[in-house]
Request: fold
Amino acid sequence: MSKQGKRNQFWSGMIDGSPFLLVLVPFGMLFGVVGTEAGLNLAQVMGFTALVIAGAAQFATVQLLVDDAPTIIAILTGLAVNVRMAMYSASLAPYLGNAPLWKRALAGYLMVDQVFALTVPKYEAEPELTINQRYRYYFGTMVLVAPAWYAATLFGAVLGQTIPPEYALDFALPITFLALVAPALKTLAHVAAAVTSVIVALALASLPFNIGLLIAAFAAMIVGARVELALQGRAAS
Reply:
């Protein structure tokens, strides 16, 4: 593999990941604002965003802490929101699993929805890529996204109080997930899981501490798995 080929994959990943900045920057700013309004100091906000590096889980956990939810509920909610990362990792293991431990650990830390949305289609479309080329592309997708996420959070935490409410930065959360989820609904199992999660979450919206979201997440996984097994059984028969 030539050095030029390595550079091409890295730059390709950077270019493919750059459009996500349009939603991640305001999203990060919003978390900085929410974190400081929740009573976290600057170090706590930045520690949170650097260690968790998962916006949806961060928002859910902070909101529960603001609502004086039990700590265990806040932790379980954050884990439930992020359980999809385990499924992402399982999907990427066949492509990236033979690398050194340090490289896999760094990839695990940088695993976010945007990376998964870009890398799996890339690897499927170009099976001839070597493992080093795959990692070059993987890290390229995050070379702009990760620093922008940290910087936007810092900006929101420091200057968030001066941002006028009419800017409505909370638009970033639904737009980000719609852009990621919609293209991923490729099979009946995917659609069944998505529909189940929506129905259960709405039906249990009145439960305290967002417990309904935990139940909805597990119900969606069960339904999706059952539908997938049924489809496989039908195909085999």
In short: The mean pLDDT is 82. Residues 117 and 180 are 7 Å apart (CA to CA). The two ends are 44 Å apart (CA to CA). DSSP finds 13 helices and no strands in the chain.
